[in-house]
Amino acid sequence: MDMTTALRELGVTDDVLTQDEKDQLDRDGYLPLEGILTADEVAAINERLAELTAAEGDRAGLEVHQEKGTDRLADLVNKDARFAVCFSHPRVLAAMRHVLGEFRLSSLNSRAALPGEGHQALHADSGHPVEPGAYEVCNSIWLLDDFTPENGATRVVPGSHRRGTMPADEMPDPAAAHPDQIQLTGRAGTVVVFNSHLWHGGTKNHTDKPRRALHSYFALRHLPQQLDQQAYLRVNTYNHLTPAQHYILDVTA
Description:
Blueprint: H1 3-9, H2 19-28, E1 30-33, H3 39-56, E2 70-73, H4 90-100, E3 103-113, E4 137-143, E5 155-156, H5 167-170, E6 182-183, E7 191-195, E8 200-201, E9 211-220, H6 229-232, H7 235-240, H8 243-249
Antiparallel strand pairs: 1-7, 2-3, 3-9, 4-7, 4-9, 5-6, 5-8
Helix pairs in contact: 1-8
């Protein structure tokens, strides 16, 4: 198996993304893909996440990261077959190929910003600056609620992935508002792919309900995964996935 074969078997063809979509991803650093999940799929995922959050309690998210003011879950690859769409959807994988070329899943987590919480400083997921075009990581936000200005929708600074700097290099306080920032608003079921070198961060949830999302995060194949998929792999997970999906996870039996 190789990247070309795996992507072809998962339905990734040259026309899965339009040239305008590729240009937007290059220029702005993010691309909304509407209608990736149906309303029924969103409801089923939210139901399963609620079950997992209740079952895991104060250990939820420990495999990768816990964050005050949020409900987080990690290692979702192993926790329900319905999450496989997050590392298998051809539109999302085509965007990852466009940004990264050769890649693998780094982690699949969920994050729900709780009422009155969720604000983050602007950051880039790489943790260090890179030259424009030498991108290492790319993320996708799977909207499980409508993202609105009120409920903590992610903020980004369009084009900042091409600056070759980190927010702290240019801002006295990366937690403050940036004059060029926008919020990624959209309907539940949308997936927003964003170059992870783009300056971004969650905003405060001013509503009385959690703002829920999945994060399917990809990196160049030679870089360490945020969660070692091979180390955490369960036999039943391996058995229900295809060889092409195994390749995207970079796991072997």
